[in-house]
Automatic annotation (TrEMBL):
Disordered, as annotated region: 209-231
EC category: transferase
Gene name per UniProt: gidB
Alphabetical list of CDD domains matching this protein: AdoMet_MTases
Binding site for S-adenosyl-L-methionine: G69, L74, A119, E120, R137
Function field: Specifically methylates the N7 position of a guanine in 16S rRNA.
Name of the protein in its database record: Ribosomal RNA small subunit methyltransferase G
EC number per UniProt: 2.1.1.-
Position of the signal peptide: none
Pfam families noted in UniProt: GidB
Source species: Amycolatopsis bartoniae
GO cellular component: cytosol
Family of this protein: Belongs to the methyltransferase superfamily. RNA methyltransferase RsmG family.
Length: 231
């Protein structure tokens, strides 16, 4: 663990042993199972586990959380370890990754659910319902991600998109599209300040209303009904 032991103990607390076991599983199986690249093994803690777990700073106590495109379990598994108060569901379309996530959850004895599918699929949305927070890490550009994630949120819920240096450029490009999808103005936040050498950059989008297109469709339908009745 090197010089991250102090921050890891602070972030994971009583779950530190579980976090160490998760890191060991990724180190042992991550590359061969196509979960992480070979260069990532030496920076599992700072770039992946801690980078993911500190996002919990922005999540209210006891929140319902969905991690979209969970893949290797990032940020979902570190979040579950650091914040056992959360009700967490991992959404992942690939069978081999779902198998991995299931194995990890059983190994670490985590109270986490795994749903196989894509966030935009009707069946997945029906199974999950609406939640307080949706997380996503390195999944898609902001506008496309908002189209997948915002429908999973209750009004007032938050999408937390873990991004890199391109965060502000994505906001400038995609803010109008996010608004059409029912999201508020995207904001950039840093998590893990004072703990991590490089804090985690998160784009936060609150769901303020239904999609504009859905509202427009309802209005058009209502006008059509009134016209038939008066015609």
């Amino acid at each position: 663990m090197g010089d991250v032991r102090g921050p890891a103990a602070e972030v994971f607390g009583a779950g530190l042993a579980a976090a160490e076991r998760f890191a060991a599983l990724l180190e042992e199986h991550g590359v061969e199972r196509g979960l992480i690249g070979p260069r990532e093994v030496d920076r599992l803690w700072d770039r992946h586990l801690l980078n993911s777990a500190v996002v919990g700073e922005r999540i209210p106590k006891g929140a319902t959380v969905v991690d979209v495109g969970s893949g290797a379990g990032l940020p979902g598994i570190p979040l579950a370890i650091a914040r056992p108060d959360l009700e967490l569901t991992l959404v992942e379309p690939m069978a081999r990754r779902v198998e991995w996530l299931t194995e990890v959850i059983e190994e670490l004895e985590l109270d986490v659910r795994v749903t196989r599918g894509r966030a935009e699929e009707r069946a997945v949305r029906a199974e999950i319902g609406t939640v307080d927070v949706v997380t996503a890490r390195a999944v898609a550009p902001l506008a496309r991600l908002a189209g997948w994630c915002l429908p999973l949120l209750r009004e007032g819920g938050m999408m937390l998109a873990l991004k890199g240096a391109s965060a502000r450029d994505e906001i400038a490009r995609d803010a109008a599209a996010v608004a059409r999808l029912g999201g508020g103005q995207p904001e950039v936040s840093e998590c893990g300040v004072g703990l991590l050498e490089v804090p985690t950059t998160v784009v936060i989008v609150e769901r303020e209303r239904p999609q504009a297109s859905a509202q427009g469709k309802r209005r058009r339908n209502a006008v059509g009904v009134r016209s038939k009745r008066t015609g």
